[in-house]
Amino acid sequence: MKVAFVTAMLCTALAPAVAAAQQPARAPKTILAVGGHAGDMELTTGAVLLKQRAAGDRVVLLHLSLGERGNPRMPVSEYAAQKRREAEAAARLLGGEVIFGPYRDGEVPNDEEARQYVADVIRTVKPSVVLTHWRESIHRDHATTHAVVVDAVLLAAIDSARGKPAHRGTRLWFAENWEDKAQFEPYLYVDVSDQAARYRDLVSSYEFVAGTISSFPYLNYYTALLTLRGAEARRTAAVAFDIDPMGKRQVMSAIP
Questions:
Q1: In whole angstroms, what separates CA 131 from the centre of its chain?
Q2: Of 175, 168, 174, nearest to 153 (Cα)?
Q3: Given 44, 52, 110, 146, which is the most exposed site by the fewest CB atoms within 10 A?
Q4: Cα(256)–Cα(241) distance, rounded to whole angstroms?
Q5: What is the DSSP letter of 133?
Q6: Sheet holding 129-133, edge to edge
């Protein structure tokens, strides 16, 4: 009787571990974050990228431009080299990959060539999720990046004569940026409560985040935003995303 009782107790104690072991292994995702400038996606989505990378996902950053005209006290060529070093350092901290686009700061083109370029990156990287800018912005590169990426996701899903097979099924999430606030509505929240310290280290790879180049308090703003969205999500910290309005439609056969 005593042996049976001990056996039952052990089975009860081990049940959660056994159940967890029986769960199918989580398939790793590939996440592609596309920004108009080096630093955009780290600031807006960096905490999420850190969390997903820690979970075993592949993370790729595509900077369409370096944002090399953002330092009025430094020649453009020198600041371009600095931004590239900073982006590479951020990628190392993240444990991700970085791709540098061919465009100049302030001149990301809203044309077919740019769409095909991003579509080729998508076909190569094969992401399950693409993170990028919201459609409304006071910065032309941000709004252009949004338009280019949305079309590139479609183009990537179509068979191409450019030598790369189509990639389908990519989801698009739009990041929250202080320059892209018009009509942005938080829809999806990701809990990043365990990433606050690592996030600060990640974005601090960039000099402009510290406020020594621009008067805008980037670090204060985005860390406060993590707290604000966390409160809305009933978490310590969270990152919010919007999606295309068509994606918000839910069809049900009855009231659940």
A1: 4
A2: 168
A3: 110
A4: 25
A5: E
A6: 97-100, 58-65, 30-37, 129-133, 171-175, 238-242, 188-191
Q: Is 217 exposed, middle or buried (0-12, 13-18, 19+ CB in 10 A)?
A: middle
3 belongs to a structural domain: no
Residue 254 in domain: no
pLDDT of residue 23: 59
Q: What pLDDT is attached to residue 250?
A: 84
Furthest CA-CA distance within the chain: 83
- What is the average pLDDT across 157-181? 89
Is pLDDT of 17 > 60? no
Task: Average the pLDDT over each of 17-26, 57-66, 108-117 and give the range with the smallest value.
Answer: 17-26
Structural domains counted in the chain: 1
Please check whether residue 251 lies inside any domain of the structure: no
Residue 31's Cβ-count burial label (10 Å; 0-12, 13-18, 19+) is: buried
Domain that holds residue 104: 28-245
The 3-state DSSP class for residue 213 equals coil
Q: 157-170 b/e with 16+ CB inside 10 Å = b?
A: beebeeebeebeeb
Confidence of residue 22 (pLDDT cuts 50, 70, 90): low
Question: What CATH number does the domain containing 235 carry?
Answer: 3.40.50.10320
Q: Do residues 59 and 69 make contact, with C-beta atoms less than 8 angstroms apart?
A: no
Identify whether the C-beta of residue 28 lies closer than 8 Å to the C-beta of residue 58: yes
CA dist 224 and 156 (Å) reads: 36
Cβ-contact 79, 61 below 8 angstroms: no
Mean pLDDT of 80-85: 98
